[in-house]
Amino acid sequence: MTLGKRRRAIGVFTRERDAQYAYEELKQSGFPIEAVSVIAKQSGDNATGTDLTRKPGHETDKGAAVGAVTGTTLGLLGGLLAGVATFAIPGIGIFIGAGTIATTLATTLAGGGIGAISGGLVGALAGLGIPDDRAKVYSDRLSQGDYLIVVEGTADEILRAQSVLFNNPGLEEWGVYDADSDRPRQVNLEQEVQADLHHPHR
């Protein structure tokens, strides 16, 4: 049975107000908001972070800077989100986000020192179970100033989130991925649900 497996889904929004509306709708629908993350590129120069790759007496220009920022950095969404943080990827830019996935990305980039490597964000996204080709798409969309909303949960929970987000005209892309697999792959939830109905004891 696949319905109990963990899934990770990503929606792309061009406008902040659409991302804000999507977040609010998920919250009002009763979706566990702790399973929702928002990631966007910093548009200004007013965010500075703590370089987690630097240790006392150790100088390095590699890695990602990560730190807390004020809610105003994320504009309208900043008023809705708790724990907004920034992570700077040398050569790529400064990104802001809130939620478990945003924190995981920031920690991965800083801890692994891969931020200085071209495509570091792609690698970090791929490490979350996103296929390389899709990770590149999301990285590019972030670089263009778009917003990612990431939701995690069982197939049933992701279907609930999907039914909410599909009503948002600002949703431009939607992908669901197998968060439990060692081999990143995109999944089709509708096909999985139908398969479970026909083979409930798989």
Automatic annotation (TrEMBL):
The chain crosses the membrane at residues 64-89, 95-128. Keywords: Membrane, Transmembrane, Transmembrane helix. It comes from the Bacteria. InterPro entries: Low_temp-induced_all0457. The keyword Transmembrane applies. PANTHER family: MEMBRANE PROTEIN (PTHR36109:SF2), MEMBRANE PROTEIN-RELATED (PTHR36109). This is DUF1269 domain-containing protein.
